[in-house]
């Protein structure tokens, strides 16, 4: 026996119609091969169950009443068979095991094999036959040898299967669906079909709304018009009836889910007020035509259907792209209807003798006697009265006065309402313009008050002009601010995703990553000549060009290094801390004309990258490549120059003041000569290890290690703990020493330098390894510079080896060294100082090498870890990275590259 499938359910989004199909017959059921049998026991009480005659066949009764079989098959035999074989007694009160059926079954047990064969042939196909045969063989065995015990386990398993399939059957077929062939439609109340249908019903309502009163007042049904009017009337009534049918098949939301069960739909509609209103609308009062003759007012109940018309208007207003046009049309229509009804009322009164003086009510031209003329006259009078324009015939009787006063008061309110509506519509039409103008005025007033130069004021006004011309909102976030996040996300994806996809770095990245980014993009508009970023600034955003042209320029702003167009991006180097200058801009970028850019905040970028480590690796790789590309062009020299000329590249946060830094100086413990070491460094290409990416850095470190450079513990807070631990581990109790002033400052410089390499605490991510010439930093005012000597020059390969140290401490050697330059000091002193300095430098460089090795080791570990994580991500489908802890990310964000 096979599983009965769930009825297929299709929801047509376009039309709002849900089509539900229930198979026409049991034979139509798409049967599944998983199940051996389904025996569904009726819930009916035994006394209510009729045990009909059943159709006896050669193989026994075909139908055992009281048992519903999934496909009209009789499986009770199987159950009965099991029952007989089972030691468990089933309650005999159950209709399933009624004596009669049991006897029948028992008597026909010999024919079980053929019956099961038939069932099997009919319903089971292919590989399922095997199972059925096993099942039959099993039953046969059980039957042939009554002593043969059926394994309890198997029986239980089968019982469970039956129960499970029974439950599936129960859930998959509602009572209505079991009846048979059902092609049913369920209309989605928010779908388009529903809308169109409400439009049709509204037309029927409007027909009644306009025609009924007109007929009653001016031109009642007569022999000439009877066919036309009755046809139209009953056509409208048919539409009303169909509307009731439509409501029976209109879904509704139950706990937020569209309910499609037909019985529930019926119940829902019939329990609603709408049902009664719809029935009331169709109350056939027109049968009274037969007794009182044609009187259209008998159809007045049809007007109750106005609720459908209002619903239609509401929905149209919500959905239309021209709400103000719609509102105007709607208002005009209401006005005309009111005039129409008022005209009809006026005519009815005048027709029936008015309030005593016919002339006041009907002072029309004598030539105007046909119905149309009468109608127009009344409509004119009605318009005059309701718009309070006046010029009405003067009333003479009390009734006329009263009537006119009521008319005028009503007209006054109507007029006020109309004015209010019109004002609203006009306000809405110009709301955007007004808001824009208000903002501009505020800015203008501010600029005037603050005496902003004229050219800047002009620039601002031109910026507003552009904004208005391009129909852009200056505050797009605000426009959709009140929407729920999910909707905002969808809008953002729709608006920005295309732009994002065009950007090389975001191509082939995970969709989730893009979606996250898209939500954080902020549109910004720049005017001609605006600098979006300037070289040397701390990079806090990256930009994607949506429209416009920008130029990447050098410091002086004259040399154009590259031109960026729509789809280009820039500013990524510094926010990824990839540049030679760490988080500093490597170039300036200027807008040529007006440029629409999307701005992506550094913090946001890192927040997203935290969850997408694979994307991060990719992004960094691209950035490194791009950086290398830049470096091949003229920017290379400029960027390098800038990195030398920009001290203070390192953010000082987290760093220990130089004076407070404990020193742990050590002597070189290796025989390798410092000169060899330095000349080694010197021979390295200038920019090779500085900024050409991780690989070149790693090479430089490898070189150092290969050459057996002396390794020292790092002095400084970065690895202070590591040093301490090491000292403790080796049993060393050597305390931190306080260095002499020069030592301290030199060491501090080294610390400062090494801090660049790895912010605290050590990051689990790959960090940039140091390069010897990164000590090459220009002096600035307020800093002492140690002049280079010939020897130093040799050491630093021609570059001026300035060490960046703090302002001279009174009495310190640095101060004295500086002062030598102006006072021609004693050569011996100078030589001694130089010697000392060189020694110090050698020590520092050696320590630097040590640090490099440690960093290299860390980098290796981190890469390993990253690889593991990527593997995990592949395995788990992109679960959040476990390494993404807040502090680590912060460190990563603030990580500096080597200077
Ligand atoms: N030569 C170049 N060609 C194109 N773009 C560049 C060039 N140099 C720098 N940039 C971009 O200009 C940006 C300036 O800020 P960033 O250093 O953060 O990132 C830089 C790069 O994105």
Concise synopsis of the structure shown:
With 899 residues, this protein is an alpha+beta fold. It is built from 34 helices and 17 strands. The protein is elongated and about 135 Å long.
List keywords for this structure.
alpha+beta; disordered C terminus; binds adenosine-3',5'-cyclic-monophosphate; 4-stranded antiparallel β-sheet; transmembrane helix; ion transport; 899 residues; cNMP-bd_dom; disordered N terminus; 34 helices
Span of the ends, CA to CA: 78 Å
Largest sheet: 4 strands, antiparallel
Mean pLDDT: 66
Q: Strand content of the residues, in percent?
A: 5-15%
Number of helices: 34
Q: Which strand order spans the largest sheet, edge to edge or round the barrel?
A: 10-17-12-15
Name the helicity range.
40-55%
Shape verdict: elongated
Distinct bound molecules: adenosine-3',5'-cyclic-monophosphate
- Helix and strand composition category: alpha+beta
C-alpha Rg (nearest Å)? 46 Å
Total number of strands: 17
Provide the low-confidence segments as ranges: 1-15, 19-139, 141-145, 174-180, 634-823, 877-899
Please provide a written account of the structure.
This protein has about 900 residues and is of the alpha+beta class. The chain is about 55% helix and about 10% strand. Strand 8 (about 250-255) and strand 9 form a beta hairpin. Helix 7 (about 190-215) packs across helix 12 (about 305-320) and helix 8 (about 225-250) packs antiparallel against helix 10 (about 275-280). The longest helix has about 50 residues, at about 825-875. The chain is elongated and about 135 Å long. It starts with 7 loop residues before the first strand and ends in a 6-residue tail after the last helix. The model is unreliable at about 1-15, about 20-140, about 140-145, about 175-180, about 635-825 and about 875-899 (pLDDT under 50). Adenosine-3',5'-cyclic-monophosphate binds near residues 539 and 572.
């Amino acid at each position: 026996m096979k599983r009965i499938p769930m009825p297929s359910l299709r929801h047509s989004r376009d039309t709002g119609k849900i089509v539900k199909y229930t198979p026409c017959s049991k034979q139509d059921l798409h049967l599944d091969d998983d199940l051996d049998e389904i025996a569904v026991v009726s819930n009916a009480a035994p006394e209510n169950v009729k045990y009909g005659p059943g159709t006896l066949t050669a193989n026994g009764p075909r139908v055992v009443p009281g048992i519903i079989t999934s496909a009209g098959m009789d499986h009770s035999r199987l159950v009965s068979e099991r029952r007989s074989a089972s030691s468990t007694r089933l309650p005999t009160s159950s209709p399933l095991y009624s004596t009669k059926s049991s006897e029948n079954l028992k008597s026909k047990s010999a024919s079980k094999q053929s019956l099961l064969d038939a069932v099997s042939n009919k319903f089971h196909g292919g590989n399922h036959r095997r199972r059925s045969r096993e099942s039959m063989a099993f039953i046969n065995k059980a039957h042939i040898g009554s002593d043969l015990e059926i394994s309890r386990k198997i029986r239980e398993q089968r019982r469970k299967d039956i129960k499970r399939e029974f439950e599936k059957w129960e859930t998959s077929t509602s009572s209505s669906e079991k009846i048979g062939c059902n092609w049913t439609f369920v209309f989605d109340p928010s779908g388009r079909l529903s809308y169109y249908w409400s439009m049709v019903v509204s037309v029927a309502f409007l027909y009644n709304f306009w025609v009924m009163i007109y007929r009653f007042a001016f031109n009642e049904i007569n022999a000439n018009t009877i066919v036309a009017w009755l046809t139209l009337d009953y056509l409208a009534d048919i539409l009303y009836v169909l509307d009731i049918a439509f409501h029976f098949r209109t879904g509704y939301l139950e706990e937020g889910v569209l309910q499609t069960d037909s019985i529930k739909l019926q119940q829902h509609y019939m329990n609603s007020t709408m049902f009664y209103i719809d029935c009331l609308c169709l109350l056939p009062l027109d049968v009274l035509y037969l007794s009182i003759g044609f009187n259209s007012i008998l159809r007045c109940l049809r007007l109750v259907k106005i609720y459908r018309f209002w619903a239609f208007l509401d929905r149209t207003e919500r959905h239309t792209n021209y709400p103000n046009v719609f509102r105007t049309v709607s208002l005009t229509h209401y006005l005309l209807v009111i005039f129409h009804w008022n005209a009809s009322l006026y005519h009815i009164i005048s027709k029936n003798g008015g309030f005593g003086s016919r002339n006041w009510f009907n002072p029309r031209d004598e030539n105007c006697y046909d119905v149309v003329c009468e109608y127009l006259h009344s409509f004119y009078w009605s318009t005059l009265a309701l718009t309070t324009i006046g010029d009405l015939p003067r009333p003479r009787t009390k009734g006329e006065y009263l009537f006119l006063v009521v008319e005028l008061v009503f007209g006054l309110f109507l007029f006020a309402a109309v004015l209010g509506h019109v004002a609203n519509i006009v306000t809405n039409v110009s709301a955007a313009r007004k808001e824009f103008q208000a903002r501009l005025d505020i800015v203008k007033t501010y600029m005037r008050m603050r005496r902003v130069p004229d050219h800047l004021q002009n620039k601002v006004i031109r910026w507003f002009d552009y904004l208005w011309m391009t129909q852009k909102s200056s505050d797009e976030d605000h426009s959709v601010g009140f929407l729920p996040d999910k909707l905002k996300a969808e809008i953002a994806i729709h608006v920005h995703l295309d732009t994002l996809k065009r950007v090389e770095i975001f191509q082939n990245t995970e969709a989730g990553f893009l979606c996250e980014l898209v939500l954080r993009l902020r549109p910004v508009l720049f005017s001609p000549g605006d600098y979006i970023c300037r070289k040397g600034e701390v990079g806090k955003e990256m930009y994607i060009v949506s429209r416009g042209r920008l130029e990447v320029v050098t410091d002086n702003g004259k040399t154009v290094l590259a031109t960026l167009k729509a789809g280009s991006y820039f500013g990524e180097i510094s926010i990824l801390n990839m540049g030679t200058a760490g988080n500093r801009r490597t170039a300036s970028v200027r807008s040529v004309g007006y440029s629409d850019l999307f701005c992506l905040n550094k913090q946001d970028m890192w927040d997203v990258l935290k969850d997408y480590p694979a994307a991060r690796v990719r992004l960094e790789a691209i950035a490194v490549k791009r950086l290398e590309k830049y470096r091949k062009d003229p920017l290379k020299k400029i960027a390098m120059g800038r990195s030398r000329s920009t001290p203070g590249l390192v953010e000082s946060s987290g760093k220990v003041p130089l004076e407070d830094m404990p020193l742990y100086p050590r002597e070189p413990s290796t025989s390798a000569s410092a000169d060899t070491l330095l000349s080694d460094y010197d021979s390295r290409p200038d920019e090779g290890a500085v900024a050409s990416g991780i690989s070149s850095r790693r090479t430089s470190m490898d070189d150092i290690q290969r050459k057996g450079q002396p390794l020292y513990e790092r002095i400084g807070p970065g690895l202070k703990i590591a040093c301490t631990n090491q000292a403790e581990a080796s049993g060393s109790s050597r305390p931190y020493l306080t260095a002499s002033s020069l030592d301290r400052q030199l060491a501090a410089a080294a610390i400062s330098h090494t801090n660049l390499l790895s912010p605290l605490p050590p990051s689990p991510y790959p960090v940039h390894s140091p390069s010897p010439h990164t000590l090459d930093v220009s002096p600035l005012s307020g800093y002492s510079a140690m002049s280079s000597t010939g020897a130093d020059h040799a050491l630093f390969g021609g570059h001026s080896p300035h060490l960046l140290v703090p302002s001279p401490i009174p009495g310190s050697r640095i101060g004295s060294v500086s002062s030598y330059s102006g006072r021609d000091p004693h050569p011996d002193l100078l030589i001694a100082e130089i010697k000392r300095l060189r020694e110090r430098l050698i020590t520092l460089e050696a320590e630097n090498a040590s640090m490099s090795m440690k960093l290299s080791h860390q980098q290796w570990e981190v890469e390993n870890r990253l690889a593991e994580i990527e593997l995990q991500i592949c395995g788990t489908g992109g679960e959040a990275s476990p390494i993404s802890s807040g502090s680590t990310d912060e460190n990563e964000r603030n990580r500096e590259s080597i200077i």
